[in-house]
């Protein structure tokens, strides 16, 4: 579609405005029947697929593939926002999504928009969880907010990172193998999965089960710390090795 193909009034809009309006037209009466029938839930499979395609383009694709896949993910966001704008009880649109995100990013960057002094990327990373905690005071655990539906390997990285940040997981918990690069790590992980498959074991389920146990330990350690007991004295969390 070119600007000359758009309905009257769209050609002078920005490219982003054009896309927002095209989605609205597709979902409006007289538009596309398939688009009109979709729900947030029915679109989840497409969001998952498009996200994985974007990751693949980032890791091994070309400039044109990256451009295309970013557009596909953007389309999903705009589609969900248009759905919300026409769903009773939701009532927000893409402008509301953008406004909320702008406010969030300004609030999480007081070193840019305020008077907090954070000079390095490491300084920002250390303070980031504090900024997020200030937004959501109802959260009581470092694990709150981690999506449990993440792939097990990504979930493990997130859980371990949160535990390390607050000192609940010591460096001595690292697996005792001389791994110095992802080129070394990849074949090792592949070998573990291969060995598991040869024994009829499910690597994803096994790791997710282990993570549930680790998260229970982390929450127990947080409770111990909240009672005024030094976590270091109570025994810091470790991993089997």
TrEMBL record:
CDD domains: NTP-PPase_MazG_Nterm. Residues 38-113 form the NTP pyrophosphohydrolase MazG-like domain. Gene3D superfamilies: MazG-like (1.10.287.1080). InterPro entries: MazG-like_dom (IPR004518), NTP-PPase_MazG-like_N (IPR048015), NTP_PyrPHydrolase_MazG (IPR011551). This is MazG family protein. The lineage of its organism: Bacteria, Bacillati, Actinomycetota, Actinomycetes, Micrococcales.
